[in-house]
Specification:
The complex is a heterodimer of chains A (about 130) and B (about 575).
Chain A lengths: L1 H17 L16 H15 L29 H4 L7 H9 L1 H4 L13 H13 L2
Helix pairs in contact in A: 2-6, 4-6
Chain B lengths: L1 E2 L3 E6 L3 H12 L4 E4 L19 H6 L12 E4 L7 E2 L33 H9 L17 H14 L8 E2 L2 E2 L23 H14 L4 E2 L9 E2 L5 E2 L21 H4 L1 H4 L5 E4 L2 E9 L4 E9 L5 E11 L3 H10 L25 E6 L15 E4 L18 E6 L20 H10 L3 E8 L8 E9 L5 E6 L4 H20 L4 E2 L46 E3 L14 H20 L6
Parallel strand pairs in B: 1-14, 2-3, 2-14, 3-11, 4-20, 14-22
Antiparallel strand pairs in B: 4-5, 6-7, 8-16, 9-10, 12-13, 13-14, 15-18, 15-21, 16-17, 17-18, 19-20
The chains are: A mainly alpha (about 130), B alpha/beta (about 575).
């Protein structure tokens, strides 16, 4: 919760400086997601999901886009995740990252979620680059 | 017996001190073998929810600690008592497994106040020679804070320590600890969130007493963090399962998360798990250790690991035990005060009280291991002891570190012990109670020491370490004074009920957890007549033997010992890299 709040504040500050150029731009800019920012947000995930490092506390995320849920070989998924029956695409990831417990109740990822839509967009864009 | 190929450095124990020594050696490409009796729990059920949250298994039944049925200690409170084995370990908890006791800490990462390593000189200078009682063998450590400062700094960076500086290069910083030793850098991460109970404490001591509260320095990572070795920490989720648990979010700075997974990939490093060290192979004529003997706990086969240099980095009592059973160095004799191995064994004089605030939501479950709000006004020699009749002191603070269902049940005095009214009181008070604590120093006493028990042995047939310890006059008076100061603060905080403020007193009761901060037994110093190891942690009698950990502390302060353990271990790693290239007495 507190982490997300803090990120929210950072993002609001970033938006504040970015939006001074075009005064009428909406709160969520339609520009291409910034991969550098996505990588920064991914630091919150990396202690458990570092790409190419197995075994660790979270499953491998390279190639996660388009993957069925709970299918990384050898990873011990929670019962909740094994029964989630999702395909990880932009929309399911967006919903899951917004509130993991709402989408897969009882899953064991110790992460409260990213409430800011733009942060999730950046993060998902970054996940796409992990191959 | 299996004899292994010769290695450059063999380290006994695979905890925090060993990991930090090995880290410095690995950077200098020195071949190192770490011998650890336990296994690695990272990535197992112990580290993952839901099992990680099993309070009964990991907390009540201390699932990550040394098994007392295999190895324990005996206690007597004075020399004329018969010693008895501690069949359950409760008062202090030796860790086992990769990471050792460094896995189950709450993460309070203090730098000790700078005069602590020169405490005797400081007290003599301030109060005169007569102020130190004859039965208190206080001594300087032979190392200065300035020598340790770069290593404190490195440890804080490696473990992503959070906090707020109180003294940056000699300039006192608002919001930090004004008694803090001067630091060259801010903490690598900012402070954790302050708890509701911490806010009440902070406001009270600031407004009504003029004290200087500050956030506890913490190895609980407030955000994502990457250390200089590229090892990562996640963000703390404030789940209240920190001490006695493996962090589910990889947010606690521990050797098992930050040191050993990195060491694994370093050429020349080897970690031997399941290695129960039984003896050092010691040549007393040559004054050298030839290697380390251990039993492989999987096969029962005895092994010998020959080495150029050996580091003892087990739990405090393990270090003393291996020197005592190996006859390395002269045993301490409390009658004459002569001898060194076993002397200056210290604990801590901790105490506390419960506070109840019916109108405030304190929500103890929402906490990290070190979400503490502290004052240091009454710690160590931060205040004038003239006329007080004791030396030392302790920090006072509100540490909200867990609200777990089995053990977190603070109830006002007079509540029935069972039945409907007990249940109702639990429901009424759970979210509205907190504790205030004193972490009191413990200075050495001539009659507090370690030796080998004449009767009791462990599962391997080796004598148990016998602890002769009690809280002596100095600790009793210190605790009465500091607990009294804490009580004054508690009364001013606006609680509707303040529980009994009971100072720590004799007899020492091993059934109650009081903190795992035991120190001494193999102490460091500049004089070989009163210390086991030199200021470089090199054994006075065995040139290629070194000791790391809190067993080298000549006294125990009113702060958790992990910071100086880490700084001394990192410095030893650098010294050892020098030693193996150019053996001899280090100066």
């Amino acid at each position: 919760m507190m982490i997300s709040l803090r990120l929210t504040i950072i993002w609001v500050v970033l938006l504040g400086t970015a939006s001074t150029a075009g005064a009428a731009t909406p709160a969520v800019p339609a520009s291409k997601p910034d991969p550098v920012n996505g990588a920064k947000i991914f630091a919150l995930c990396a202690a458990c999901h570092e790409p190419g490092k197995a075994p660790q506390s979270g499953p491998e995320l390279r190639g996660v886009i388009g993957r069925r849920s709970a299918t990384v070989p050898g990873f011990r998924y929670s019962r909740a995740m094994r029964r989630a029956n999702l395909t990880w695409d932009e929309s399911t990831l967006d919903a899951y990252l917004a509130d993991p417990q709402a989408v897969v109740p009882g899953n064991t990822m110790p992460f409260p979620g990213l409430p800011v839509a733009e942060e999730r967009r950046e993060l998902i864009h970054y996940l796409k680059t992990l191959q | 017996m299996t004899i292994h190929p010769h290695c450059t450095v063999a380290i006994v124990g695979g905890g925090l001190a060993a990991g930090l020594v090995a880290r410095q050696l690995a950077r200098e490409k020195v071949q190192t073998v770490v011998l650890e009796r336990g296994g690695d729990v990272m990535g197992t059920a112990a580290a993952r929810i839901p099992t990680q949250r099993d309070e009964l298994r990991w907390d009540v039944r201390i699932g990550l600690m040394q098994d007392a049925a295999t190895e324990t200690y005996t206690l007597r409170r004075s020399r004329d008592e018969l010693s008895r084995p501690m069949r359950r370990l409760n008062a202090f908890l030796p860790g086992t497994g990769v990471g050792g006791a460094g896995n189950h800490w709450n993460g309070q990462a203090w730098r000790w106040v700078e005069y602590n390593t020169k405490l005797r000189s400081r007290l003599v200078e301030r109060y005169g020679r007569k102020a130190i009682p004859d039965d208190m063998p206080l001594q300087d450590w032979g190392v200065s804070y300035d020598e340790l400062e770069p290593y404190y700094d490195l440890f804080e960076k490696l473990f992503g320590i959070s906090g707020r500086a109180g003294n940056l290069n000699g300039r006192i910083q608002p919001g930090g600890n004004p008694f803090e030793a001067p630091r060259r850098n801010e903490y690598p991460q900012g402070p954790l969130e302050t708890t509701e109970a911490g806010l009440i404490f902070q406001e009270t001591v600031q407004r009504k007493f003029g004290y200087h509260p500050f956030p506890s320095p913490a190895a609980n990572s407030p955000g994502a963090y990457t250390n200089p070795d590229g090892m990562r920490l996640g963000a703390c989720q404030y789940c209240g399962h920190c001490d006695r648990f493996i962090c589910e979010a990889n947010a606690k700075g521990t050797p098992a998360a930050l040191l050993y997974p990195w060491l694994e990939h370093q050429p020349g490093f080897k970690l031997q798990q399941g290695a129960q060290v039984t003896a050092l192979d010691y040549d007393d004529k040559a004054g050298r250790v030839r290697g380390v003997r251990y039993i492989d706990l999987l096969t029962g086969v005895e092994h010998l690991q020959p080495a150029d240099a050996v580091v003892l980095a087990g739990f405090t009592l393990t270090n003393a035990k291996l020197l005592l059973s190996g006859g390395i160095g002269r045993r301490y004799d409390p009658v004459t005060g002569q001898g060194v191995v076993g002397r200056n064994f210290c604990y801590q004089a901790n105490s506390g009280m419960d506070l109840f605030f019916p109108g405030r939501w304190l929500n103890p479950f929402l906490s990290a291991g070190s979400t503490g709000t502290i004052i240091d006004e009454f710690n160590d020699d931060n205040f004038d002891h003239t006329g007080l009749g004791f030396l030392g002191g302790g920090y006072i603070g509100v540490n909200v570190s867990s609200g777990r269902p089995i053990k977190s049940r603070r109830l006002p005095p007079g509540t029935p012990r069972w039945g409907s009214r007990w249940k109702q009181a639990n429901a009424d008070w759970y979210a509205h109670a907190c504790s205030m604590g004193v972490q009191g120093s413990c200075y050495p006493h001539r009659e507090n020491f370690l030796d080998l028990d004449p009767d009791y042995t462990d599962a391997f047939g080796q004598p148990l370490v016998r602890i002769t310890f009690d809280f002596r006059e100095n600790e009793r008076q210190l605790s009465a004074y500091c607990t009294g100061q804490a009580r004054k603060i508690a009364d001013a905080m606006g609680a509707s009920v303040v529980g009994p403020a009971v100072p720590r007193s004799a007899p020492f009761d091993t059934r109650l957890y009081q903190g795992s901060h035991i120190t001494g037994g193999t102490i460091m110093g500049a004089d070989s007549a009163t210390s086991v190891v030199s200021p470089r942690l090199q054994h006075w009698d065995a040139e290629n033997l070194f000791v790391a950990g809190a067993s080298v502390f000549a006294h125990n302060a009113g702060h958790n010992p992990t910071g100086p353990v880490a700084a001394l271990a990192l410095r030893l790693g650098d010294d050892l890299a020098r030693y193996v290239r150019n053996p001899g007495r280090l100066s």
